[in-house]
User: Which sequence fits this backbone?
């Protein structure tokens, strides 16, 4: 039951209706049952893997909480007369015990992810480099494991850090980890932000219903009109890349970038839209990423919740770890203050982007994709100041529109080249495509010689695509200027409002790529 | 929604009332908006759903629902063979039967079953007989055609059942998709065409009662060498499992349904024989016998003779009957229904007066056309018959069309408003369009042979309705007299289709063209080319040519009569017009096939010798034989003895991997060639070339030189090809592989 299927729409309609019919205090049960049903309908017996993860994480959370609580109780029992050293010893002992459990919790969750998602990748490496002959296993990946694993780890760490109190209600906790709109492709929520919203019942709110429905409609527009239409030429170009060359190669990467943006943000908008209707605010996962002026900014606007997770649970712990502090101290002695100070964060950043790449899939191309981004972010850290100084010296006004446009275009080009790695059929194909780009890159005859229509889309489809992408960027630009479209629509006369809704609805129904004549593509991030 | 807003707090009465009212308003707003969405969806569905005018689908299904309930007595279902074969009006005229033809394009047994149920739902009290055309039983349902038959069915328990069952059977399409076509057709926005506009307010022409009218004769359009000779006899006792499982399943259900509803089921095979053969006949016959159902196979004697079916004049292509064939079949079956099934004469029954109206409407529309296409030899009579409401008649001249025009004909042209045609001069270019009997375009241009100016072509556009075309055309044509190149006109038909017309006299491009949707419809021959377009049914219904250079009358459209008359006058084969040559060849082949099929060689133990014996027993043909590959092991002792007796000595002694060629002349003389040493053998005369290869089947050919008949090289396993052909017309009367 994909988001784009008719039965999904019927399913969420049913959930919404039942949600508002049952009493407030039991509304979370509707969401839980809906989530488990959704998961079961999509993954069958793999629901057990999710349930195991829920129970394990739940228990780990309670154990950590108990250790922390016990530690605190012991500390208060020591009384005022206890020495500082005694208190410190007790704190350390408590922390040590809790850390042990946290490590266990992370390892088991991560271990499950590594085994289910990456086992064959490691076997492949081992067989290729060490000459072993481990058999490749047929492993079915549970839906959303990449997302809920990160969610579970965040929860465990947050309990350990004392940021949240461990949940002592298994069923409610199960809802937190399995909440169906976001389990497929995020966003990756935090317990503190999401749990209480899920557990408390929300009253019906007409305005939220309208806003949620609008967001769902927009999500469908992005997914069905743009992403799935773009999927046709993108698949042709990336599969038969050897047949094409020059600028068209770059265009294929641009197309894929747009496809994945529309696809991913479309799915997230559907999830957010449904949640909004039932009174839950999910975090934003995109903030006009193609308006970014640097790669670092891009990753703050693209898949925001993943970036935030990496920052909180990988980057900072690494940067502040004893090892990295020591490395920073030593590197300052060897490399000088400027470079030495930057080395630890650069190393941590590289690790983060390696992980981001690796998280995307068990393939070398994803690792290179992560490193590609890491390189440009590192360059930004290392040369950012000099670069700014040079620009100032050359007389560029860094707040001018021209300069900003230049930065946006530059970031867009770098991002697009990165797409060769994330979408290429293999690492070899990705490099092959880049190589093809440099063969006759200035050749633009493909624009006129019928190549475009040979990619699987007819002329009217290209026209619709161009218009839809223009609408997407127009909406993005409005958001960038801080204009809330939904609030603006709210202010309009009901006739105009409904006219807009009808046009949008018809656009999705008529111009969307769906139905049996097309096999609507699965969400790209839903496959992670 | 009031229930939805349950809260755990305890608000005051005023607050509660206010909130309830607000909730009610919201519920109403939601309902209103959902209604608007539903209207939009229905609108999009109507706009994007194809009309399916072709094969009468639109008219058949919509016309069915216009019938008064409980009136239909005999129902016809099946595929396009049925659409073109059963004319309920002809049945009414013949026996006063109230029938309806619910056959649709490639209608599977599955859809036939549900249309029978639907007909029984609405006409349960009157329905007595169901006639199923069995040709489609050899195929499983194809979803595209199932949609064409299922989607126009009105929502009822029958449709719901059909939609559900289709989705279960198919597995690729949901039940919803069958009920809401928008799910399938929403992406048609980029391919909307004229039919999507024409469907709004389209006349379902319910008086046709499901029959698709066409007077086109296949012999006018194509070489009769391509025409299948009717089966005539059941040549084999074999059964090939040609009926699909799906078809058998639904045939069972049709039979059960008919039995339980007291309906008499009749299985019919209409006379065309493409995709039909002995094994299919045997299978259907066995089924009919087992279930005690009547099976009327019109491809074989005695029915084919009783009906009087003649493929060249009774079919409009190789598979479907034209009006003349349908009239024969419908008249015969009307009598059968009356005599055998108890269908009653409704001609003077007041409740059935609508049938008389249908019949009148039918005859008003088609009688003139039938006269014109079937009998008129004079262009003026033809135009008088076809220039009627409902038709757009285009008249286009090629080469010279004036030389033999008589004054009487010119007078009639003038009476019809075709003043320029009345003035037609030597080698003039000429285009006219007569819509609903009114001349809307008429342009003539003289031969530019003496002109000194040049231009590529003279172009006009009538994409909007001309107001004073007939008057203005005179001055226009004068202006264009000095310009080189054919006349060219674009015309917007009443159903918003655009036709591109071109006329060039002998010195002006020598062309006659009528292009609609990139398809050429004229015969593009010398004289006056006429194309008749039915703008209510949205189809070209006749295309013919009158060679008014040669004669003021064309050869009789009744080609059999014309051929006999020409042969009686002593005209030689090569002097006959092309269409008569084709008929000549067809008839020759027909007669031979009759004999050949009667020889029952398929079940013979010595099929080659039996076949050759039969061919040799009737002189007049030339026979070419080639051995391809190593075929000697296939010849049994008995067969070799018989071949020796026939005088084919070398064939009787053929050794392993020996090549073998043989030419038997029309006088019976045999010329055999084989070789002990060479891998290949080659033999030829003026008409035929034979190459045999003892090792390679694919390198062995028979090639009729002058006709360019393609070589027989499509078999790659060892065997013997026998081709029998008529040396006069060089038409192949039989080709067979052993």
Assistant:
């Amino acid at each position: 039951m994909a988001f784009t299927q008719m039965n999904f729409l019927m399913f969420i309609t049913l959930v919404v209706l039942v949600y508002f019919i049952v009493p407030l205090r039991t509304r979370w049960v509707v969401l839980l049952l809906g989530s488990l049903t959704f998961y079961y309908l999509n993954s069958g017996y793999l629901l057990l893997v999710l349930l195991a993860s829920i129970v394990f994480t739940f228990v780990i959370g309670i154990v950590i909480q108990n250790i922390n609580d016990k530690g605190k109780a012991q500390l208060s029992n020591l009384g005022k007369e206890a020495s500082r050293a005694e208190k410190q010893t007790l704190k350390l002992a408590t922390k040590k015990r809790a850390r042990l459990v946290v490590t266990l919790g992370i390892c088991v969750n991560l271990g499950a992810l590594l085994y289910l998602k990456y086992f064959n990748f490691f076997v492949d490496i081992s067989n290729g480099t060490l000459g072993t002959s481990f058999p490749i296993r047929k492993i079915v990946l549970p839906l959303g494991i990449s997302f809920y694993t990160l969610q579970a780890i965040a929860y465990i760490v947050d309990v350990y850090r004392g940021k949240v109190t461990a949940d002592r209600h298994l069923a409610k906790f199960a809802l937190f980890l399995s909440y169906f709109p976001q389990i497929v492709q995020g966003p990756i929520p935090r317990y503190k932000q999401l749990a209480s919203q899920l557990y408390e019942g929300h009253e019906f709110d007409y305005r939220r219903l309208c806003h949620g429905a609008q967001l769902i409609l927009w999500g469908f527009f992005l997914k069905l009109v743009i992403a799935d239409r773009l999927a046709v030429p993108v698949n042709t170009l990336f599969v038969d890349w050897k047949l094409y060359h020059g600028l068209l190669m770059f265009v294929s990467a641009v197309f894929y970038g747009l496809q994945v943006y529309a696809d991913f943000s479309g799915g997230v908008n559907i999830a957010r839209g449904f949640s909004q209707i039932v009174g839950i605010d999910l975090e934003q996962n995109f903030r006009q990423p193609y308006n970014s002026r640097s790669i670092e900014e891009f990753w703050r606007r693209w898949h925001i919740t993943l970036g935030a997770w990496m920052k909180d649970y990988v980057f900072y712990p690494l940067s502040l770890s004893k090892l990295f502090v020591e490395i920073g101290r030593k590197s300052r002695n060897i490399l000088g203050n400027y470079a030495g100070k930057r080395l630890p964060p650069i190393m941590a950043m590289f690790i983060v982007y390696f992980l981001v790449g690796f998280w995307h899939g068990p393939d070398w191309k994803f690792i290179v994709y992560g490193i590609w981004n890491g390189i440009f972010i590192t360059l930004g850290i290392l040369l950012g100041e000099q670069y700014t100084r040079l620009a100032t010296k050359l007389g560029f006004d860094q707040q001018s529109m021209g300069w900003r446009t230049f930065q946006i275009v530059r970031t867009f080009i770098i991002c697009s080249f990165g797409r060769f790695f994330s979408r290429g059929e293999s690492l070899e194909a990705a490099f092959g495509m880049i190589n093809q780009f440099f063969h006759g890159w200035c050749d633009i005859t493909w624009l006129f010689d019928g190549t475009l229509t040979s990619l699987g889309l007819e002329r009217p489809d290209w026209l619709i695509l161009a218009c839809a992408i223009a609408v997407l960027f127009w909406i993005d630009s409005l958001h960038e200027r801080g204009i809330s479209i939904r609030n603006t629509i709210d202010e309009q006369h009901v006739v105009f409002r409904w006219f807009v809704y009808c046009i949008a609805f018809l656009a999705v129904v008529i111009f969307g790529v769906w139905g049996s004549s097309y096999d609507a593509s699965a969400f790209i991030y839903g496959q992670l | 929604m009031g229930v939805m807003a349950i809260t755990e707090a305890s608000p005051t009465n005023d607050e509660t009332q206010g909130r309830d009212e607000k909730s009610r308003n919201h519920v109403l707003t939601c309902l209103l908006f959902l209604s608007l969405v539903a209207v939009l969806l229905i609108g999009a569905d109507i706009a994007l759903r194809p009309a399916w005018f072709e094969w009468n689908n639109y008219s058949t299904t919509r016309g069915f629902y216009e019938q008064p309930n409980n009136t239909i007595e005999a129902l016809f279902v099946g595929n396009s063979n049925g659409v073109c074969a059963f004319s309920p009006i002809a049945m009414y005229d013949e026996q006063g039967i109230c029938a309806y033809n619910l056959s649709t394009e490639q209608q599977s047994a599955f859809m036939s079953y549900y249309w029978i149920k639907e007909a029984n739902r609405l006409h349960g009290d009157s329905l007595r007989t169901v006639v199923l055309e069995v040709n489609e039983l050899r195929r499983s349902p194809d979803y595209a055609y199932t949609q064409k038959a299922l989607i126009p069915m009105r929502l009822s328990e029958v449709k719901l059942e059909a939609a559900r069952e289709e989705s279960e059977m198919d597995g690729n399409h949901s039940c919803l998709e069958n009920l809401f076509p928008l799910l399938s057709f929403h992406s048609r926005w980029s391919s909307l065409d004229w039919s999507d506009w024409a469907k709004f307010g389209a006349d379902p022409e319910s008086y046709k009662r499901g029959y698709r009218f066409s007077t086109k004769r296949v012999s006018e359009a194509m070489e009769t060498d391509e025409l299948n000779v009717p089966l005539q006899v059941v040549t084999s006792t074999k059964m090939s499992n040609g009926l699909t499982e799906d078809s058998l399943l639904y045939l069972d259900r049709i039979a059960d349904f008919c039995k339980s509803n007291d309906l008499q089921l009749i299985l019919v095979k209409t006379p065309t024989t493409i995709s039909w053969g002995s094994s299919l006949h045997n299978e259907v016959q066995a089924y009919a016998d087992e279930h005690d159902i009547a099976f009327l196979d019109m491809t074989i004697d005695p029915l084919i003779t009783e009906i009087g079916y003649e493929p060249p004049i009774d079919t409009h292509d190789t598979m479907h009957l034209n009006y003349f064939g349908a009239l024969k079949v419908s008249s015969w079956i009307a009598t059968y229904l009356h005599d055998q099934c108890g269908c009653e004469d409704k001609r003077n029954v007041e409740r059935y007066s609508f049938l008389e109206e249908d019949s009148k409407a039918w005859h008003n529309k088609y009688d003139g056309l039938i006269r014109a296409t079937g009998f008129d030899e004079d262009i003026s009579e033809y135009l008088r018959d076809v220039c009627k409401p409902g038709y757009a008649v285009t008249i286009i001249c090629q080469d010279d069309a004036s030389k033999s025009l008589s004054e009487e004909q010119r007078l009639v042209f003038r009476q019809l408003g075709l003043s320029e045609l009345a003035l037609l001069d030597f080698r003039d270019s000429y285009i006219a369009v007569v819509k609903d009997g009114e001349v809307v375009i008429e342009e003539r241009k003289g031969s530019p042979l003496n002109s000194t100016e040049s231009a590529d072509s003279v172009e006009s556009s009538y994409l909007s309705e001309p107001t004073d075309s007939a008057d203005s055309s005179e001055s226009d044509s004068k202006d264009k007299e000095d310009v080189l190149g054919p006349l060219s006109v674009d015309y917007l038909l009443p159903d918003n289709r655009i036709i591109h017309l071109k006329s060039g006299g002998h010195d002006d491009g020598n062309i006659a063209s009528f292009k609609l949707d990139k398809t050429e419809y004229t015969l593009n021959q010398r004289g006056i080319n006429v194309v008749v377009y039915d703008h209510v049914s949205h189809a070209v219904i006749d295309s013919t040519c009158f060679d008014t250079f040669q004669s003021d009358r064309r050869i009789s459209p009744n080609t059999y009569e014309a051929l006999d008359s020409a042969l009686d006058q002593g005209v030689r084969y090569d002097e006959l017009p092309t269409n008569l040559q084709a008929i000549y060849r067809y008839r020759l082949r027909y007669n031979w096939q009759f004999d050949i099929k009667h020889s029952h060689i398929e079940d013979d133990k010595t099929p080659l010798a039996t076949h050759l014996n039969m061919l040799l027993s009737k002189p007049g043909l030339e026979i070419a034989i080639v051995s391809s590959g190593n075929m000697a092991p296939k010849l049994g002792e008995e067969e070799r003895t018989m071949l020796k007796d026939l005088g084919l000595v070398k064939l009787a002694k053929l050794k392993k991997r020996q090549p073998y060629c043989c030419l038997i002349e029309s006088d019976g003389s045999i010329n055999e060639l084989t070789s002990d040493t060479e891998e290949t053998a080659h033999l030829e005369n003026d008409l035929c070339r034979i190459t045999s290869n003892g090792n390679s089947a694919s390198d062995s050919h028979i090639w009729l030189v002058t006709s360019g008949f393609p070589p027989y090289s499509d078999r790659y396993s060892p065997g013997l090809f026998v081709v029998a052909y008529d040396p006069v017309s060089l038409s192949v009367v039989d080709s067979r592989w052993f």
